[in-house]
Amino acid sequence: MTAPKVTSILAEWIVAVQDDDIPEEVRREGVRTFVNWVGCAVGGARHETVDAALKAVDAFSGPRTSGVLGREERLDVLHAALVNGISSHVLDYDDTHLKTIIHPAGPVASALLALAETRPMGGRELITSMLVGIEVECRIGNCVYPQHYDRGWHITGTTGVFGAAAAVGHAIGLNTTQMQWALGLAATQSSGLREMFGTMTKSFHPGRAAQNGAMSAFLAEAGFDSSLQGIEAPRGFANVLSDKQDYGEILDDLGTRWEAALNSYKPFACGIVIHPTIDGCQQIRDEIGDKVGAIRSVQLTTHPLVLELTGKTSPKTGLESKFSVYHAAASALIERDGSPTAFTDALVNRADIIALRDKVKAASDPSIHEASVVIDVTFEDGSTLRKHIQRAIGSRDVPLTDEQLNDKFTRQSELVVGEAKTGEILDAAWRIETLADAADVARRAAVGPVRSAAE
C-alpha cells in the first residue's frame, strides 16, 4: 500500500487534538497508565543502572530544571527525560501494549514530565499530550509489527521516539509542518536492538527515545526541518526497518479507535511472556505449600516466542534473570514472588533457587497462545500436578484493578522513598488531571535536598 500522506495526516491529527476530543474512558486509562509509570520510575530510581547513567551524564547537564523521580538530583529537560525513561523501564515492570509488546509510557511520560518542570502545563493537558504520544507510537508499531520486531528491533525504543516527539510537540504547540519535521527527526533517530535484552542497555532504549523524541520537537520548533514523509517514504522508517508496512494501522479510525485504551499493567517485574508461568507457579505454591521441597521436575509447555525471548537457562545477574523463564518459575515456586525482589543478583545466585531452576525444563508448542502456559509438576513420590494458565493476571482479560495498581506502586516505591513519601506521590499521581501544575508530581517525588549528582 502506498500512502504518501501518512506523516502529513498523522501530524495534522496530533496538532488538532484537544482535551475534550479524548473519551473519558480513554482518559481514565491514561491516568492509570500515568500512575503505573510514576510507580515504576520511583521503584527503579536506586537501581545500579540509574546510578551509572547519572554518573555518566551529570557533567553534561544544562540548566537543572527537571527532577529524577525518587532521587534528589536535577538535570536539564533532555537528560531528565533520559534518566527517568531508564528508571521507569529498568525493572521491566512498566505498562505494555500487548498487540505490539511496546511499553508506551516510558518514552512519552518521561519526556513530558521533564518538560512540565520548565514549561508549565496543567495535569489534564499533560494527560492529553501523553495519550496523543501513546496513540502515535502504538499505531506506528501496529504498522510494522511483528516483522519489525522479528528483525531484532526493540520496538519500545524504535517507536517510542515517535511517541515522545508527538507528545512534546503537542504540548509545546507545534504547527502541522513543524510536527511533520518532528516526526521525520524522530524517524531518523529510531533505534534499539533486542540483542541488548538482559543488560542495562535495554532500559536505555526508552530513555533515549524520550530524550531524542523531545529533542526532535524542540528542533522542529526552532525551524530545523526534515523530510515531510519520514514514516512512509521509500527510504523512510517503515520501509527501511520492516518488511511489513500496513499504513491503515496508522490512519484508520484515527481519533475514534484508541490504542491507549488497550494498555495493560504488569503484576510481575519481568518480560510479559513469562507472566503466565509466574502466575501458574504461584498458584501451584499456594496449593502444595511446603511440598515444594519434594519437586522432582517441572515441565513448561509454552509458545516458541517465550523461549526465544526468555530462554536463558543459567542467568548470573538480576537483569539476566528477567529473561529466564526457568528462574521465574523457581522463584515463584519457592518465594511466591514476581516483584522486583524476585529478580536480584542475590536471589538468582541462591543455592536453592539454582537447584530448583535446574529441574525446570521447557518445550515450545506453536499451538499454545503466547499468553498461555501448561505447567506439569512431578514430585519425588511420583505424583503429578498440572496447571493450565489461559491468560495471566495483568492481561487485558484479567486486568489489574486500581487497588492492585496501588499495591504494586506501594510495594516498589516504599523500598526507595519510604511509606509517607510513597503515599504523597501516589495521591498526586491519581489526581494528575485536577492539578493546575503537572510538575507537582515531580516535585513530590524528589527525595532529599535538591542538588546535582556532582554535589
TrEMBL record:
Record-annotated MmgE/PrpD C-terminal domain positions: 268-431
MmgE/PrpD N-terminal domain span: 10-247
GO molecular function terms attached to this record: lyase activity
InterPro entries: MmgE/PrpD_sf, MmgE/PrpD_sf_1, MmgE/PrpD_sf_2, MmgE_PrpD, MmgE_PrpD_C, MmgE_PrpD_N
One Pfam family per UniProt: MmgE_PrpD_C
Domain of life of the native organism: Bacteria
Family: Belongs to the PrpD family.
Name of the protein in its database record: MmgE/PrpD family protein
Organism, as annotated: Aurantimonas marianensis
